[in-house]
């Protein structure tokens, strides 16, 4: 690798993908990040799609923040610019895929393969070898030849049962003529900690550091790191900065703690680049937003896990009311939207008083999660384009009385959804997580 890390054109990248979810791509990505970091490499992590949780795990393994690259919500130009920006100063950009390589949203767009094609990066395919042997060859061959604009550069086998099993797999794969970079044995310590709707972050996972150490050791032992690095392709330089949504204001107070943890780095970076001042505060610590802020952003998170603390956060509530009274823009997404309401009823049926800036009551009462991409239209005080791309992911519902919605919404297939959120003066919010302009 070159030492000229400031030259974006010299950075290289790879995409880690799999035939299906559960094959081991997160294990391999985390292990590679940790193992390469131990070897002295600077590795920039990224995650495909609208995921708040995996990037935190990836950042922990890499020792630097991860970025989301969303091929459904972002334009090709924005993807390339964000990838180039993330790769600056690194030896390698390592992108973890989502679901199976060719799995996309309901409209057929937004797959890991789409991202690899946009960026021109080769794919390392992680194949779960459990309960199969020679059949691995036609599986890999099919994936390798499915799309001419997606290049599978190498194979990693996961959950290999024995040396004999590995030999059988390797002989079969020889017919496919793709490099076999390594075979990871089936071991109990290599099970990635369970993550569920973002309710688990690395600091909340018992033994995450031990898991990461085990992953780094095993990946370093069983994958040929030098061969893998040699397959990486140049990350194309981008002269244009990543397209960004305009900042909510000149001085933005942003809630950030374990109750409000869902923040996309590309949005914050774009606001900084536009000259906005960002001031962070913790509602859980009963901190009020900066009293000179002309905009307040309450991002998504887990307010339902912190109902009593948020109900008792009188300084936080008073700060929001003062901001409303001075005509600051106040915007909440999902958990932040819930915190702006009158009350939050948790999964046990206990009601917790919220800030009371919007006449809504939210309840954790959905038997199934509400999940999907959203095309959003608005005519509101938000200083953003009228058309936006975002996503929705929650188990709660909101009951409101008579307020105009913040967004008209379509799903990925352009099927009309129920209007989302509420607007009252310059206070507004919804369950949508906004990613980019449409």
From TrEMBL:
It catalyses: hydrogenobyrinate + 2 L-glutamine + 2 ATP + 2 H2O = hydrogenobyrinate a,c-diamide + 2 L-glutamate + 2 ADP + 2 phosphate + 2 H(+). NCBIfam families: cobB (TIGR00379), PRK01077.1 (NF002204). HAMAP family: CobB_CbiA. The a and c carboxylates of hydrogenobyrinate are activated for nucleophilic attack via formation of a phosphorylated intermediate by ATP. CobB catalyzes first the amidation of the c-carboxylate, and then that of the a-carboxylate. CDD domains: CobB_N. The lineage of its organism: Bacteria, Pseudomonadati, Pseudomonadota, Alphaproteobacteria, Hyphomicrobiales. Its EC number is 6.3.5.9. Pfam families: CbiA, GATase_3. Catalyzes the ATP-dependent amidation of the two carboxylate groups at positions a and c of hydrogenobyrinate, using either L-glutamine or ammonia as the nitrogen source. GO terms for biological process: cobalamin biosynthetic process. Signal peptide: none annotated. The record marks 433 as: Increases nucleophilicity of active site Cys. InterPro entries: CbiA/CobB_synth (IPR004484), Class_I_gatase-like (IPR029062), CobQ/CobB/MinD/ParA_Nub-bd_dom (IPR002586), GATase_3 (IPR011698), P-loop_NTPase (IPR027417). Its cofactor is Mg(2+). Residues 251-436 form the CobB/CobQ-like glutamine amidotransferase domain. This is Hydrogenobyrinate a,c-diamide synthase.
